[in-house]
Specification:
- This protein is an alpha/beta fold and 455 residues long.
- The chain contains 14 helices and 20 strands.
- It has three domains: 110 residues, Immunoglobulin-like; 137 residues, Rossmann fold (3-Layer(aba) Sandwich), CATH 3.40.50; 177 residues, Glycogen Phosphorylase B (Rossmann fold), CATH 3.40.50.
- Strand 15, helix 8 and strand 16 form a beta-alpha-beta unit.
- Helix 10 packs across helix 13.
- The radius of gyration is 29 Å and the shape is elongated.
């Protein structure tokens, strides 16, 4: 739409009711258009003589955040001002929270473009989780993360008036093992036309109750408008197990690394980490971290180190479950039951390691592991099994060792400095590829496509 003014009438009257004068001799041609979710104003102003000031303000209400961009070849200043609570910016039914303002240097001819895009209000079922924080922080200019309005810890939002999309993570976090509750939530979302994007972290919950959870996962699969897979390998498994709509959008968006998170937690230098943990310097320290899993081969790694012919190897394990038996071997410096610890403690554990052992059953039901994000984030090589996720995600940062005691022991004995250095360089290169900024943009793109009903 294009609107044109051949003069600017004066707004209002003088303080004493006197006539403020004739219209300003000026013209304005304003072209308004919509580009996907963005309102675009292209404005052309001319004046007989330069005015005293020229400015444009775009108001933003608190529950509808905006991303505003200005472009002009004229001298200008763009600002965003918080005005919440000021009487000039409120009425009896609403209030302006922020004002996006452009002040142009007065001239006889001015051109500028304004682009105003509402942020996508995404309700995340993992709101506050470190994965959520890592992903949503770099896309805050496009997406406003909100607590989930559904499930056991819902933040009420009657009518879902404050969101455009539900971002589902682990379905069991929403309504546990209650299939009827899941179906009721799904029906409510569909009744309000709220699209669903599911980040498929798991194929099934770790407690392995397929008879209970497969129907729940299947129910969400049937209604998912978009699915984010952390690997192409994982996409094949998920789509083979659950049925999705033909028009569901499937995107492979890798899991970002956690390097920045551990740096913020106070990642220490190697020597300091060893001192904190009571460790002595050694030649090659293998770390086993993360929660116990049915697919995780902790016992095999411990037995492999005990069977190794090397005297310069050491293993530190904070990942014992209920069934592992720790070999009586001095090279196993730490073998502790898994428990949650503060982030600075976990960061010190990572800093003390030369390499992480991520050995999982390649035929198991896991789709991903956050420990791989720890390794890449710190540029650590990984001793890995042939589990499809690790093969794809780690690339050359992973050193294949199989998943039996014999194969792991053979690989450990054969490790040399050149092999470790090569894997370390690959991990650092992969770290660049797995920065959250690029992954966040692709996630926001998918949200937008789903909202706009684009393929």
């Amino acid at each position: 739409m294009t609107a044109r003014w051949d003069a600017f009438p004066v707004s209002g009257r003088g303080l004493d009711g006197d006539d403020p004068g004739p219209p300003l001799t000026a013209t304005r041609t304003a072209e308004l258009s919509v580009e996907r979710r963005t309102i675009v104003l292209r404005d052309h102003l001319t004046f007989e003589r330069p005015p005293t000031a020229v400015s444009l303000a775009i108001g933003e209400v608190a529950d509808r955040p905006l991303h505003v961009e200005w472009s002009t070849e004229n001298d200008h200043q763009a600002t965003t001002v918080t005005v919440g609570g000021l009487s000039e910016w409120r009425s009896s039914w609403s209030a302006i929270a922020k004002v996006h303002q452009l002040d142009l240097e007065p001239a006889t001819e001015l051109r500028y473009t304004a682009r105003a895009t509402p942020l996508i209000r995404a309700a995340s079922t993992a709101f506050g989780h470190h994965y959520h924080q890592s992903l949503y922080r770099p896309m805050k200019h496009r997406v406003a993360g909100r607590p989930t309005p559904v499930g056991w810890d819902a933040t009420p939002d009657p009518g879902f008036r404050h969101l455009e999309v539900l971002h589902l993570h682990w379905p069991e976090w929403v309504a546990f093992d209650d299939l009827a509750a899941h179906r009721a939530i799904i029906a409510d979302l569909q009744d309000h036309d709220i699209p669903i994007v599911w980040t498929a972290h798991n194929l099934t919950p770790h407690e392995k109750r397929a008879d209970v959870y497969d129907p729940i996962y299947a129910a969400w699969a049937e209604v998912a408008d978009g699915v984010i897979h952390h690997s192409a390998w994982g996409e094949q498994l998920l789509r083979a197990r659950y049925e999705f709509r033909p028009d569901t959008r499937h995107e492979v968006i890798a899991h970002g690394h956690f390097g920045a998170m551990w740096e913020r937690a106070g990642l220490p230098a190697r020597a300091e980490a060893e001192q904190r943990l009571g460790l002595r310097p050694t030649g090659l320290r293998i770390g086993i971290v993360g929660a116990p899993r049915a697919e995780k081969r902790v016992q095999e790694v411990l037995d492999a180190v005990a069977a190794s012919q090397r005297n310069d190897v050491e293993v530190v394990c904070w990942s014992l479950g209920r069934d592992e038996v720790v070999p009586d071997d001095g090279r196993i410096a730490i073998a502790e039951r898994y428990r949650l610890v503060e982030r600075n403690v976990y960061a010190a554990r990572l800093a003390a390691c030369d390499v992480l052992a991520l050995v999982f059953d390649p035929d198991g039901e896991m789709l991903a592991t956050g420990a791989a994000a720890d390794a890449i984030g710190l540029g650590l090589p990984v001793l890995r099994s042939d589990w499809g996720y690790l093969v794809e995600h780690l690339g050359a940062a992973g050193i294949p060792v199989g998943h039996t005691t014999e194969s792991i022991a053979t690989a450990v004995d054969a490790l040399d400095p050149q092999q470790l250095a090569s894997a370390r360089r690959a991990a650092l290169a992969r770290k660049t590829e797995l920065e959250w900024s690029g992954l966040a943009e692709r996630t926001a793109d998918l949200f937008e496509r789903v909202i706009l009903h684009e393929p």
